[in-house]
Amino acid sequence: MIQENLNIVREHIKQACLRSGREEKDVTLICVSKTKPATDIHTAYENGERNFGENKVQEMTDKFQELPEDIHWHFIGHLQRNKVKYIIDKAYLIHSVESFRLAEQIEAEGTKHNVTANILIQVNVAQEETKFGLDRAEAVALVKAISVGLPHIRIKGLMTIAPFTEEPEENRIYFRQLRELSEEIAKLNLNHVEMKELSMGMTGDYMTAIEEGATLVRIGTGIFGNRAYLNRQ
Ligand SMILES: *Cc1c(COP(=O)(O)O)cnc(C)c1O
Fold first, then answer.
1. Which terminal CB of the chain, N or C, has fewer other CB atoms within 10 Å?
2. Nearest CA, atom 10, ligand 1
3. Percent of the chain, pLDDT > 70?
4. CA distances (Å), 173 to each of 76, 125, 158, 208, 213, in order?
């Protein structure tokens, strides 16, 4: 099941790259394994996958202990400041930075652990009230503030969670807006800021996201099947 799903997803990524004249190597698949057991991750790992996404600190650190060392763990959930210390040396990339206060905590823990943290700025391009993330102006301001003030942080790009929709075309505008914002920020040539990554696209809309420039797609259901939240411990 997981293997077949992976084959389908990889084929879709390939097709979206072909359609938009992009190279497959420029798109990284992040297998979103939240709520799923380590055995599922192992299956994907045995199939060659190395990038996994989690949205809960405890769950990510548990899986980090249990699974192979060469996995890149992507933290994609809302991050509380008091939990930064648990993931600072485990997360390959933190996708969800959306305040200077959180960035300051990452800086403090980075200093303590002697690591530089790779992060993305989460932008709520669709301006959905239920979602975390900054508007465009706030995102630009945050990038500038981190760039001048927080030397243990490297900003690698932007992330967005587009609205849930049955119709992926409806999200194209948001993916495009995120790419445009990233191009704008890149032009500022800020220290420690490299607008290389665009984390956008999930199971329902990743092909559209790739056509609009996604470099990191976050896919859960399309690989591991539906999540059963009710039985979570
Ligand atoms: C759960 C989650 C995903 C994956 O969603 P699917 O629709 O299952 O592919 C992607 N990004 C974030 C931030 C998530 O929380």
1. C
2. 218
3. 98
4. 22, 9, 15, 10, 12
